Amino acid sequence: MNLIDTAFARLKAEGKTALIPFLTMGDPDLATSIDIIKTLEEAGADMIELGVPYSDPLADGPVIQRASERALTNSITLTDCIQVAEQAREAGVKIPFILFTYYNPVYQFGLDAFFELVKSKGISGLIIPDLPIEEDEEVRQLSESAGVHLIPLVAPTSNDRVTRISRKAKGFVYCVSSLGVTGERADFHTGINDFLGTVRQATELPIAVGFGISSREQVKRFEKLCDGVIVGSAIVRTIEEAIPLLKEESSRAAGLKQIGDFVAKLKG
Amino acid sequence: MTQVPDQNGRFGKFGGRYVPETLMNALLELEEAYRHYSKDPAFQDEVRYLLHKYSGRPTSLYYAERLSRHLGGAKIYLKREDLNHTGAHKINNTIGQGVLAKRMGKSKIIAETGAGQHGVASATIAALLGLECKVFMGEEDMKRQQLNVFRMQLLGSEVVPVVSGTRTLKDACNETLRYWVSHVDDTYYILGSVTGPHPYPMMVRDFQRIIGDEARQQILTEEGRLPDYVVAAVGGGSNAMGIFYPFVQDEAVRLLGVEAAGRGVDTTEHAATMTKGRHGVFQGSMSYVLQDEHGQVQPAHSISAGLDYPGIGPEHSYLKDSGRAEYVPITDAEALEALQLLSRTEGIIPALESAHAIAQTIKLAPTLDKDKVVVVSLSGRGDKDVEAIMGYLGGSVNESH
Fold it and tell me: Average pLDDT of chain B?
C-alpha cells in the first residue's frame, strides 16, 4: 500500500488533519535538506513535499523563487533531489515523501528512467504544477505502473473541471486556496469554503489545501474543512532566515530548532 | 501538410498547454471566444478597419534596388512592417487581441515586453480602446530601451519592472503569467508572440498572417510569381510566423528563419534556440528550448532585446522538424554590419531584430542568380535602437562601407 494512503487512513482514524510542509531541495545544501527533513518529522509533519529547484517556477512566488535560485547556484539536479529522499529514509525518516517538480526537468530526464528511479527511492507521490489533465496522460499511466500517486491540483477557477480532475486523482486532491502563485497571504479566495465543499463532493479521496497558509490560525481554519494542510512559502522563508545559523557548525542545531519550533507551532 | 494546430493546440508533438490549473479555464474561455469572434463578420470588420485606417495597412512591399545591386545577386524585396503605426509588426496582433479583450468584456490588459515594441503596441491599443494596461518588462531591458519605457508611460500604461531571474524577456514572461494567475478574473493577457500555451500560438499567428497574405499578393503583382525565399528574424517568432504561414503550402518557396547568435553559437552568449536548443517544455508549450542537460532553462543573449529569448514558438519547431523551414544564426556583429549597410544603401534604419534578417539576406543574395527573388520581413524600424547602436559603435559610425 502506498504510504500516503496509509498515513491518511491512520490520521482519519485518529480524527486528525495532516500537516504537509514543503521545502526546496538543496536550499541551502543537500546535507542540510536531509537534516531539515528529520527536523520536520520530529516537529510533527505527517508528509513532506520535496521541491525540485527550477529556473522558471511559474506557479511560485518570490520566496520559493529565491530558494530555487539558491539551490541552483549549487547545481542541484533532479537526481540529487531524489537521492535526498533515499538518504533521509536511511537516516530513519518514516513519513511519506511527495516530489514537487515542474515538468521540464522530468521530461529531460526521460519519463521511463524517471519513474524507474523514483519508485526505487521511496517517493510515494508526485506533483507537477504545470501538467494539467489535458497533458498528463502518459505521466499518469507511468505513475500508476510505478505505484507513485500523481496528485493533481484543483483551483477556485476549475469549476466543472473539478469532477474530471478528481476522478483521475490518486493519493489526495490538492486544492489551491486562492488565485495566484505560492506565497503567504492574509486573505483566501472569497468562495474558498464552497470550493472545498465542491471538491469534497467530487471525490472519495482525502483533500488538502495549500498556497498562502502560514500561521497556526490559518491551519486551524482549514483543519475542519480538509484532511491535509500544506505549508510552503512560510517554511521556506523560515529556512531562509535560518541560513546564517545553518551554515556554521556551532549554530546549526539552533537553526534547525528555529525551523522545528515553527512547524510545531503550526501543528498546534 | 495537415492543418495545425489540432484541437489540443498541438503542432505535431509541439505546443499544448503546460500551465498551472488556475489558468486552464481562462485559456479554454479565450479559445472559445477566439473561435467564436474569428468567425464573426463584425469583429473581423473592426479589426480590418483599425489595421487599415489606424495602423496604415497594407504596408508596402518595397523593391530594395540599391541593396540588391550592391550585393550583386537576387532581387530583394522588403516587407515594410516598420511603416506600421508604432513602428513594428507587433500592432497587428495587439489590435486583434485588444478588440477581442473588449468583446470578452475585459477592462484590464497586461502584456510582457522585451525590446518594448510589443509593450508600446499594447499600450497604444489600450489607449485607443480605453483599457487599463500594465506592461511587464525586465529591469535590464528597461535600461536598454528607455525610450520605449517612456513611450508606454506617455500612452498611459504602467510599466512594471521585473527583477526576478535574468531581468529580461524570459522573466518578464514569467512575471506576466504569475500576475495573470492572480488576476485571471478580470484581466486579459495580450501575449506578444507565437509562444506560450494554446491558443496563443495559433491566435497570434492568425493575427500576424496579414504580413504574409499581403506580401504574397504583392509579390505576385510585382513579379508575377512567388518568391524563391522568404527571410525573417525569429525570437519568439511572430513576424516570421506571420510572413511564413501563407507560403507554407507553396513548397517551392524556401522559408528561412534567422535567430540571434549573439557573440557566437560556440560561446555561452547567444539566443540560437534552434541551432543549440533541444525539445522541452517552457512557458506553457513544448518547443525547442535553450537549456542545460538537466532541463534548467538557460539565459539567452542578443544585442537585440526582442530576440533575447531562450524559447521559440511551437509552430516554428514543427516547421523545422518537418523540414519545411530552415533556421540559421546571425551574430551581433553581423546584425550591426547589416543595419549600417541597409541604412546607407536604402535610407532605412532597421530595428536590431530585423537587422538579423537583413544580415542573412546579405549572405544569401550574392549566392543566387539575378532572376531569383527574396522577400525579407523588415519587422520594425530602428529608431528605438539608435542610442544603443551609438554605444555599440563607440559613438561613431563604421566607415568601412
Answer: 95
| Digit-coded pLDDT (tens) for B236-248 | 999 999 999 999 9
Residues of A in contact with B8 (CB under 8 A): 134
- Residue B235 in 3-state DSSP? coil
Asked if the Cβ–Cβ distance from B297 to A104 is below 8 Å, we say: yes
Burial class (CB in 10 A: 0-12, 13-18, 19+), A1: exposed
B7 in reach of chain A (CB within 8 A): no
pLDDT digits (tens, 9 = 90+) for B57-92: 999 999 999 999 999 999 999 999 999 999 999 999
A60 tagged catalytic: yes
Distance from CA of B381 to the nearest CA of A (A): 32
Map residue A51 onto helix, strand or coil.
strand
| Residues of B with a known catalytic role | 90, 112, 379
Gyration radius from chain A CA atoms = 17
B contacts of A211 (beta carbons < 8 Å): none
Q: Which of B275, B293, B273, B268 is nearest to B283 (CA)?
A: B273
- Alpha helix locations (H) across B183-237? 200-208, 210-223
Judge: A165–B21 Cβ closer than 8 Å, yes or no.
Answer: yes
Alpha carbon B103 to its chain's center: 25
Instruction: Report phi then psi at B40, rounded to 5.
Output: -90, 115
Rounded distance, CA A92 to CA A64, Å?
Answer: 27
Fold category of A17-151+207-267 in CATH = TIM Barrel (3.20.20)
pTM reported for the whole predicted model: 0.96
Q: Which uninterrupted H or E stretch holds A41? A: helix A30-42
Q: Which of A126, A118, A116 is nearest to A51 (CA)?
A: A126
Q: For B301-351, where are the alpha helices, taking DSSP H only?
A: 314-321, 332-346
Would you say the C-alpha torsion A176, A179, A183, A186 has a positive or negative sign?
negative
Interior angle at CA A246, CA A244 and CA A247, nearest 5? 70
Centroid of chain to Cα A88: 16
The beta strands (E) that lie in B263-310 are given as 278-282, 284-289
Q: Could you state, in order of their start, the residue ranges of all structural domains in chain A?
A: 17-151+207-267
Task: Please state, as a whole number, how many other Cβ atoms lie within 10 Å of the Cβ of residue A21.
Answer: 29
Measuring CA to CA, which residue among B378, B396, B354 is closest to residue B115?
B354
- Grid-cell match 494596461, residue found: B133
Cell of B212: 504574409
Give the model confidence (pLDDT) of B292-318 as tens digits. 999 999 999 999 988 999 999 999 999
